[in-house]
Structures are given as C-alpha cells and as structure tokens.
Amino acid sequence: MKPILSIKGLAKTYASGHQALKGVDLDIRRGEIFALLGPNGAGKTTLIGAVCGLVRATGGTIEVDGVDVRADWRGARARIGLVPQELATDMFEHVAHTVAFSRGLFGKPKDPAVVERILKSLSLWDKRDAKIMALSGGMKRRVLIAKALAHEPDILFLDEPTAGVDVELRRDMWEMIGKLRDQGVTIILTTHYIEEAEEMADRIGVIDKGQLILVEEKAELLGRLGKQEAIVGLT
Ligand code: ATP
Questions:
Q1: Residues 6+ apart with CB under 8 A from 75
Q2: Cα 87 to ligand 1 centroid, rounded to whole Å
C-alpha cells in the first residue's frame, strides 16, 4: 500500500547556519502509530514543522497522501492534525466553540454532528460548554487533540504529548491515542520516553543530530535488543 506520508531527503538549515535535519527519508504507513524518539535538539519538532508547512525545508520532498507539500501546502495541511507541545489555546473560549472554530479555519462547513462526534470520542461532550481555563490539565490536552481533529485529518501529529505529565495522565493519553488509531487515524508522535514508544507504537524511529539513525518494527527492535538494552541503546 502507498505510504500516507512520504519524506525524502528532508533537510533544514536554519538562518543561523544550524543544520537541524540532514537528509531524512521516512515513509509512514496508513493506520500505524509511529513513535519518533530522540534527545533534546535532535530535530523532531523541526521535522513535524516541515511536514505541517510551519518550517520551510531547505531540501528534499514531502508528500502527504500523494500531495506535494511545496506544490499544494493547503491541500497537504488539510490532511494533517497537529497537537503542539505547548498547551497553547485560548483559555477563555468554550470547548465546543473552539473545536467548531478550528474546523472553520480549514474551510470545512459547520457541522455540529462532527463536533459532537469528536468531543464524544475524547470524553469531552459533558464539558462542551465549559471554559477551557476551568478544565484540568488532562482535559485541556484533550481539547488540543479535539481541535487538531476538528477538520477530520487522516494523520495526527502529537509533539511530545505526555511531556511533563504524571503517570496516571500519561496512561490516560495512551489509551486515548490507541482509540484514535482504532478509528482509523494514522498517528505520529514524538517522545523522549522509551516506555511511551513501547506502549503505543507499531514502529519506532530514532532521530539524533538531524539524522534518522534507526527505523524498526517495535516488536523486532525489542526482540532483538531486549527491553533493558533497548532503553540504554535508544536514550
Ligand atoms: P526537543 O525534544 O527539545 O523539543 P527537538 O528534537 O524537537 O528537541 P528541534 O526543536 O527540532 O529539536 O531543534 C533541532 C535543532 O534546531 C536544535 O539544535 C535547535 O536549537 C535548532 N533550532 C530549532 N529552531 C530553530 C530556529 N528557529 N533557529 C535556529 N535554530 C533552531
């Protein structure tokens, strides 16, 4: 089957001269959960930014479901939902309204039934009229996911979805991400946590200093290295 996301020779040199990506090749399969592991500064956020059109690549090509990002940025972006690292959202907004608004940003028709379905799938329906600022940290994260799903993308990027959250909330997020995959969304998440990749991913990629140094089926990787060695080897 054709990959849903195809990245070839992706390079990014910032104006400072720093080479954040040095020729990354990566194909993402439709329906998989792909975990991209890497230390601080490895290039994870730059890679996501390039795919989402937030960072202008200095080399290489990106195709989202056959759509070239450079030729049709909007067309490619419409297929992608992005959950950023920071909890940046309008805290004074109400939950359902902010999701409907995000949908509108992509030129999608107002469709209360879609918003309802998304909120229900994230157990946010009871909170639909709540102000975001009144929600717990876990619920705020769910709102960010709901916003990212508002325009019904095929691919969901989660940039360090559980950075700085407690163990219970991390498990909660993992369960939710698993449910989204069961609904057919292809998921790419970046993480510093090997446990997160172990728990969630079908395949694991490791990026370091702007280079993808390994891509492997999770089962094969853990089978080959054993859990402890994998942890030592990857982090
Ligand atoms: P983290 O896990 O800390 O979020 P990361 O793997 O997401 O790190 P990036 O944020 O992609 O890494 O950064 C990759 C490298 O590019 C880092 O060395 C970073 O300092 C550098 N970098 C990122 N953004 C810029 C920028 N706008 N200008 C110059 N250098 C940048």
A1: 67
A2: 18
pLDDT of residue 234: 53
CA atoms in the 13 A half-sphere facing the CB of 165: 24
Probe target for ligand 1 pocket from 10, 44, 56, with the most ligand atoms within 8 Å of CB: 44
**Residue to mutate, 10, 24, 46, 196, ligand 1, most ligand atoms under 8 Å from C-beta:** 46
Reported residue count of the chain is 235
With cut-offs at 50, 70 and 90, classify the pLDDT of residue 198.
Answer: confident
| Whether this model's pTM surpasses 0.95 | no
User: For residue 167, what are its two tokens?
Assistant: 């163990």
- Its ipTM equals 0.96
Pocket residues: Cβ below 6 A from ligand 1 = 14, 16, 18, 20, 38, 40-46
Closest CA to 82 of 53, 107, 111, 115: 53
Q: Assess whether pLDDT exceeds 80 at residue 39.
A: yes
